[in-house]
Amino acid sequence: MFSRPLLYGNFSKICASAAARQPHQSVTQPTTASTAVANNNTQIREYHEVVGDILCPSQVMGIDHIRDPRLNKGLAFTLEERQVLGIHGLQPARFKTQEEQLELCKIAVNRYSESLNKYLYLSDLQDRNERLFFRFLSENIEEMMPIIYTPTVGLACQRFGLIYRRPRGLFVTINDRGHVFDVIKNWPEPDVRAIVVTDGERILGLGDLGASGMGIPVGKLALYTALAGIKPHQCLPILIDVGTNNIDLLEDPLYVGLRQKRVVGREYDDFIDEFMQAVVKRYGQNTLIQFEDFGNHNAFRFLDKYRNTYCTFNDDIQGTASVAVAGLYASKRITGRSFAEYTFLFAGAGEAAIGIADLVVKAMVAEGVSLEEARSKIWMVDIDGLLTTTRKDGNLEGHKFNYAKEVEPMKNLEDIVDKIKPNVLIGASAAAGIFTPKILQTMAANNERPVVFALSNPTSKAECTAEQAYQNTEGRVIFSSGSPFPPVTIGDKTFYPGQGNNAYIFPGVALGVIATGTHHIPDDMFLIASQELANYVSDADLERGSLYPPLSSIREISMRIAMGVTKCAYDKGLASTYPEPQDKRKWLEEQLYNFNYESSLPVTWVWPRMPYIKTRDLNPTKLFGDSKDTQKK
Fold it and tell me: Where does the record place the Malic enzyme N-terminal domain (predicted)?
C-alpha cells in the first residue's frame, strides 16, 4: 500500500485531492521527476504559505516565517520567537526593531541614482517583507510615490520584459476564452475585494504596451494598501492580454505577452463579458473592479455598459475627473468665482477630458445651474480641432457630442484660446508642449489669475512645465499638473506646484466601497471625494502655489473620503453591509491593514486549576460473552 507524501503550503489540499483521485500504479513504475520531487517533499515550500490575514498556526512551519513575505520580519524576530519557531541560528545574532529596518530601507533606496533601480529595490522588498514594504511606502509617500507610481512606473512598464522577476497578479489571455473562471480560480486568495484590471492598450501617455502594462495594476493596488490601508490579500492585479498593435513590442525578444495583433470587435467584447462574469462568480457581486488604461474607444463603452450591473469605475475617467475638480474647487478660493462664472477650454477630448467635463457639469448642476447652461460653459479641442457641429473633419461619437458648439470650425489652439477667452485651460491631450508661451501669455492677458492644468502623464507628455506656466504669466497662474514638477522661483517668490494625482482619490473611494459592500458606484461619490479633498487644502497650501495638500497627508484624506463615500452608500441604499455604523471613522479604522509587526507566536492563555473531585475505583469491565467463551475453552 502506498504512503501519501507529506505536503505543505496552500497547494497541499489540491495536490492531496488530485493524488487521491489517481488510480493506483505499479510499484515498479519508473521514478519520474515529479515523484522524485514528491519523495523529497520536505524541501518543497510554496512562496506564500498562508492566505488571508488570519494565520492558522498548525499549518505553518517555523521556516515559513522567513520564506513567506507576509510572515517575514527579518532581524526583528525576538529571541523567543527564533527559538520557539525553530529558526534560531538561521539569522545573525542581531535583533532589530521595525524602525531600525525602516532607516536601513531609506539608506538603501537612496543609494540608487536611477529611478528604475529604486523601483526594483522596492519590488524586491515587497517580495521579502510585505509589512515593512507597505509601512516604508506609507511613511515616505512624498519620496516614494514617483517611484512606485508615475512617472517611474511608466518606465517600468516599458522595460517590463527585462525586469520581470516574480509573478504578482493574473495574466488572462484571449486564448483562455471559455476558461476565464478556471484561470481566476488559480489565484490562491479566496477573499479578493478589489481588482484593478487593464488590457494595456493605453498605458499612461505611452500608448499600447500590451502585457507589459501589468505594472499599472500592481502599482495602483500597492497604493490601495499604503494610502488607504486596504489589506493586500484582498487586492488582485489583472492583465487582460488580447495582443498588442505595438510593432516594436511584437518584434522585441524580451516581450512577455502574446505575439499577435489585438483582438477587437465582438470577440473582444464577449471576452470582457466573460471576464466580468467570472470575477463575480468567483468573488461575489460586490467585488470592486477598477478599469485602468483601456483605450479611449473602449473606456467609455465599458463604463456605460457595466456601471449599473457591476461594482466598477474607471480611474482614468472618474478618478482623474475627481482630482481635477478638487483642484478647481480649491481655485475658487483664490479667484472668488463660482463654476458658473468660469469658461472652460479642454485641450484633448479623450476619456480623461470628458470625465473631468462631466463631473464639472455635475458640480455646476449642484450649484443650481441647468444642465444645458453648464455644458455651454465647456469647450473642447481634439486632434481635429474645436468640437463643433459644423466641422467636416473628425467625428463626434459618444460623449463628445455633448460639448460640440454650433460655431465655425477652428483648428489652431492659439486662435481658439484668443477667441474663446477661457478662464480655465485644462490639458489632457498627451501632446507635450501644446501650451505654448503665446497661449499662456494670452491666458494671463485675459485673466487676473488664469487657471492652467497640464494633466498629461508622464512628465514628458505634459502640455507645459510648471516653469513655463509661471514665467509666461508673471507668476499669476493657478497651476496644477499630472506629474510632479520642481519648485519654481519668480522674483522673490517660490512656488511649489501641486500634482493632481489620482492617488488622492481612488484609495479612499475604494475603501468606502469595499467596507460598505456597495453594489454600484455613482458619480456622486466622486464629487464627494472632490469636495473632501478640496476642503483639506489649507490657506498655506494655496499661498505656496499648490491646489492640493502635501502627499504626506493622503492617508488622512483617504479616510475622510471613505467616510463620505460610506455615508453616501447608506443614504442612497447602495450598501450591503448592515447595520449602518454610527461612528463611521472608528468602524473603518477597525478594518484597516496593520503595517506594524505582530507576534509570530501563537496566542497562549492560562486555564483555571481543575477542582479536586474524588473518583470511584476503576474496575475492569468484562466484555459480553467473554465468560462463556472462556468456559468452552
Answer: 126-307
